[in-house]
Structure formats: structure tokens, C-alpha cells
Amino acid sequence: MKKKVFLFTLAFGVTSAFAQDLTSKKGEPMLPETDDWAISMSADPIFNFIGNAFNASVANGAPGVAWLNGNGTIIGKKFIDEKNAYRALLRLGFTSEGYKNFVNDDAIVTAPTFPAPFPQKEDKISIKNTVIGIGVGKEMRRGKTRLQGYYGADAMLWIAMSSEKYTYGNTMTGVAAPGVTPTPTSTTWSPTTGAILAEGPLGSRTLSNKSGMTLGIGVRGFVGAEYFIFPKIAIGAEYGWGIGFQTAGKGTNVTETTGGTTPVVGEIETEVAGSSKFGFDTDLNQGTIFGFNGSNTGTASLRATFHF
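Given the sequence above, the corresponding C-alpha cells read:
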């Protein structure tokens, strides 16, 4: 009889311990509840800081807050009950960059007397990028302790486009004459970063580039686990596997050059062929949320999630 009473008391104590473990000392619930909202961010900076704290370095910076998957994606959740939540994925990116460079003025036939500087003309590049990604999903959860497993699926749509426009200070002409030339001094730019690659005489130079619009769709299943270290604050990881397709339309490239029997300046517009991609992998999008960017397939997202 005493043995049975002891076993019953032990079982009740263990059950009570688990029950108490789901609330803080102040009585705050540890796990998400009905109508809770949640937002996730990358947990990598936190763990990098903790790891660096033990490497004998005196220059460890404080942990920062990073986007999920390192590409600017926001993931939010709305709990319809303690075990089910709707998910929303969002990325909105619009950038416009401008860079300038000074080159020698070709109209100056006689160089100025030292130490006077050589007159300059201004070259410019304008770079624009647009990335839009939206997704919706459903998440289901399992577990009765601080360790919670979850699974579900997301449906996603993404759009991307980019363009560059170039302007030059020195004018291109068909026939060389004092102060003008078919090969004006011009800047060669990186079309992605705006970095100056070179400057000098050019017989053909880019005026504009415009990509075709990229449109992608995908469906992604996911599975993950979270451990609630504090009330409504969890550290976890998510792994995905899905299928996706994206297509890019034709782009255009415009260059300025000279040609003809009697050389004249002309603009040549050429089409840039489009492309398409299909993927079925872990993860659908090769380590990112929207699009096919990179080759780190199977990368899990380590994240911190805050519920409120």
C-alpha cells in the first residue's frame, strides 16, 4: 500500500512540475495562446555573440537583430488557438542608387599649365532594383512542454526587376575633330554595385540596361521545433522542402557607338533573352525565402520568435 501511495505521489509531483514549468514565477504563460501574434527574426547573431564570448577576445560586439534567412524576409503569425496559427511572409524591397565619377574633358585640346587641374566632365550611373515577395501559410503545433514541434505549409509569390541608366560628360561623335572623338573618355561601371571598373577611351558604351520582370511561385512544406526560454520567447529552427517555378522575361540593352560608311553616332538596342527555373529541393529556394538565389541547399533557418 505504501509503495502505491509513493508511486502516486511521485507521478503527481512530476505532473505538477511539468504544469508549473509552463508558467513563469510571476504566473505568466510560457506558450502561445489563442489570438497571440508572433514575429520571427534570425537567431544567428545571438549565438555568434555567445560563442565569441568564450574565444578570449576582448572585442566581442553586442548581438544584433537580423532578417530571417539573411534576405530581408519578415514572418508573422496569428494564433487561432494554442496549436494552430496562420503565417504571413513578406518582403518589400525598393532601392535607387546613384554614383558619379569625374573624367578628363575631351574638349580641352591644350593641357592647363601646371599646377592647374585638368578640367573634368561628370559621368553618372543610376541603379534601381525592386523585389516583392508575399506568402501565406498554416502552422500546426505539437507538444505539452516548453519544447514545441510544429509543421505546415506556405504558398509564395515573388516579383523582381532591375535597371541601370548611364550618362556621360564627354560627347561621342562620328568623326574625330578638335575636342571631340569617336572614342570619348568614359567610365566603365559595375552594373550591380556602381563600382568604377575603369576609365578611358571607349568606342562603344552602355546607355541603359533593363531586366525582364521575374515572376515566381512556390509551395513549401516546413517542419521545425522551438524551445521557450522565457514566457512567449522561443529559440528554434525550421527546415523546408518544396517546389517552385520562376520565369524571367526578355530584357533590353542600349549601347552608343559609331558606324556607317560616313561614321555617325547611333544607339543600338538589343534584346536580352529571358530564362526559367524549376526547383524541388530542401529548401525550395536554396537557402532563401523568395526566389532561387545561391547553392546552399538544405540550409535551416535558426530563429528567435516573440509572441505577444
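Residues 1-20, 62-67 have pLDDT under 50 and may be disordered. Try to locate this feature in the C-alpha cell string yourself.
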